[in-house]
Design goal:
The protein is an alpha/beta fold. 50% of the residues lie in helices and 15% in strands. It has nine helices and seven strands. α2 packs across α3 and α4 runs parallel beside α8. The radius of gyration is 17 Å and the shape is globular. It binds cytidine-5'-monophosphate. Cytidine-5'-monophosphate binds next to α2, α4 and α8.
Length: 217
């Protein structure tokens, strides 16, 4: 059984790259940010954002099934609408959930069992360092906040230079700061990860680099 860890900051391309790499290799794919986003969305729905015990209960009730496409994600019996997990409200609140050590431990179990089900690519912030320190291959995608902001604005149809674009860059930088500076499992490249700086690369080039490493070319 082989596992590929792809870590990196928000909008570094790890989800699109991870999904494509998984498809080409016939591996399962889990974008682990979705777990943190789902717990956050459920906490917002339940008015529980200031109740760490309630947030932990939601993390314990989180289930993911990688055999279904798109991946099937449940928090208790709650499902999520497309777009709900990407809302600005969830994005602003998710670092607070991701900084809770017990929540991270609960979601670590969910991520490990998902990876145990077969060959898998997991994308996240701490896959190579904490979730799968024994991953077969580890990659860390990095890019400046500006180019990540541009990528996200294009995905969402906002003009570069628009107020929406400026707010995306500001939100990404704030989330990076929180992710890199939290005391538990901060965003950092594993010492044995291959670092790929994606500013000047297309998605296809990043995918090709990862596939060539995995196939030993
Ligand atoms: O990758 P994505 O932007 O969807 O992640 C959302 C948030 O979830 C991140 O900002 C981070 O706070 C948290 N996260 C994490 N560990 C992971 C994946 C995501 O802390 N493995």
């Amino acid at each position: 059984m082989s596992t590929i860890a792809i870590d990196g900051p928000g909008s570094s391309g790890k989800s699109s790259v991870g999904e494509r790499v998984a498809r080409e290799l016939g591996y399962a794919f889990l974008d682990t940010g979705l777990l943190y986003r789902a717990v956050t969305a459920a906490a917002i729905r339940g008015g529980a954002m200031s109740d760490p015990a309630a947030i932990l209960a939601l993390a314990h009730a989180t289930h993911v099934n990688l055999e279904q496409r798109p991946v099937h994600l449940l928090v208790g019996d709650q499902e999520f609408q497309p777009g709900e997990l990407e809302s600005a409200e969830v994005e602003r609140a998710v670092p607070r959930v991701a900084a809770l050590p017990d929540v991270r431990a609960a979601l670590r179990g969910v991520q490990r069992s998902a990876a145990d089900s077969g060959n898998a690519v997991l994308a996240g912030r701490d896959i190579g360092t904490v979730v799968l320190p024994e991953a077969t291959w580890k990659f860390f995608l990095d890019a400046s906040a500006e180019s990540r902001g541009e990528r996200r604005s294009r995905q969402r149809g906002y003009a570069l230079g628009s107020p929406e674009h400026a707010s995306i860059v500001a939100d990404l930088s704030a989330r990076d700061y929180d992710d890199r500076n939290r005391s538990v499992a901060p965003l950092v490249a594993a010492s044995d990860a291959r670092i790929i700086v994606t500013d000047q690369m297309t998605l296809e080039e990043v995918v090709a680099e990862i596939i060539s490493v995995v196939q030993g070319r």
